């Protein structure tokens, strides 16, 4: 049995930044929460801790070997591999540090009174309302020279996932962030690719808060639940999504085919321009729209017709379309209920079929 091994490294903030700039620190480990979880006050408090010699928690990483950077160039002249540190805990701390050193944000003009001042070599410095470049050189030097501890972890994927859960047990992971960890690294990587699909960013609309909570991935997972013939759909509750997440490594071939289906559906939707349907292109309706798009793909109907139908359905939802719809009736009393989800699918498909009939487009 392989036992997880750990070793400790101490690097300065400046060294961490240099490693990151040289692509030797990876902040995109798939089971991680998205960056941007901290509010301004939390970020400022952390900068104060670095400059004012307060203790800060250790960082944790696993690692892999690589010989090329993202641009295709080699890390070393002899083309040999180097270690890339995959951060599994400490993402918010490192992104806060790196973005501040890069002058991407400034401390606020009215910081928390306790955090507004730091003491370095018996001198007092105010850090309010300043980008990093505007801080006193003594403050800059203190931040960059501050030593941070990194635990380098070597273990099986299961052990790494268990460690991730333990490290984040008190941090309020969202249900989707928990589900992603249950799926494992392989599937988390696949969902990362899907969430970055142009359709997810340019067609459907997710708020900053929804992105922070990984709700875009939840919407993809819900769509998959509806498409999965090997799964008995019960509802969209957090508990049920968690149960479904556990099935990924037990039903691999089927799940891989479903991922291909999701990808081709996103490609189909992205192949046309949808102008006036913003009220339907959001997290709530995402799985239902994805299901209805299957009808167009199956029948070989052009995506421009899909766009025209979706715009017409959007009008009907506002009570302005020619084809009435009872879709809103299924938006009452909880959108996660099985009866409401299936009711929305049925009502959207009914509207779709009637629209196509009016266009003299025959479907089976």
From TrEMBL:
<protein>
    <submittedName>
        <fullName>DUF262 domain-containing protein</fullName>
    </submittedName>
</protein>
<dbReference type="InterPro" id="IPR004919">
    <property type="entry name" value="GmrSD_N"/>
</dbReference>
<dbReference type="Pfam" id="PF03235">
    <property type="entry name" value="GmrSD_N"/>
</dbReference>
<feature type="domain" description="GmrSD restriction endonucleases N-terminal">
    <location>
        <begin position="18"/>
        <end position="182"/>
    </location>
</feature>
